[in-house]
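Form 7-S
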Amino acid sequence: MDTTQILGYVGALVVGLVLGLIGGGGSILTVPLLVYLLGYNPVVATAYSLFVVGSTSVVGTFQKYKKGMVDLKTGLTFSFPSFISVYLTRRYLVSDIPHHIFNIGSFEVTKNMLIMVLFGIIMLLASFSMIRKRVNPETGSEKQAYYKTFIQGVVIGAITGIIGAGGGFLYVPALVLWAKLPMKKAVGTSLIIVAINSLIGFIGDVQNLAINWHFLLIFTAISIIGIIIGVSLSKFISSEKLKKSFGYFILLMAVYIIYKEIS
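Output:
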């Protein structure tokens, strides 16, 4: 095992820790790790990310549920429109995007570049969401209408499908502001949505890609160890303070990815 592989597996442990502590951000680390450190194609990396984050989130959901930190009804309501959108995006849209998209003079925009730049933009938005101070919803305020939840689920699902992210960094604020869940319960509930979205999205990829199961299962197993540790540590660490610090880190990574892809 060379140094790059060792660093990759250390990264897998960190992915699990982050998911366990803040309920999102696993894919934000997984995709750049697979692309820039381990040299995977962005399409393959986003597919692997869906499996890793989805499988890891299943374990995290079980741990959070035992502690009463998962609202199953709300989680399933959000996930239903999302997983349909994720599957259709991975199965039909991502695989059909041409390698060459267009040119601006001598500058060529490729499929891989487009995916990573879009990933960087979503990371920027996610970082702002993590950094800004949360405003707790008013006590007794009503949850939003189901059709709005459905539309939001479809949109977030499409984003999840294209960039290979579980969407936890999008769902935690949505669950707090729209579903009126307390922060810690929103973190736990987001994991069930991430798990469903990611694994169903990966099913769409299995039909289009050759999967290196040996690597993927080892990477995923290490991430699962990480989320078990992360969930255990979450009761001792303020998720809001951690989320803000992680937000600044993601902001730097987003700028780096966008610069690297277009320079």
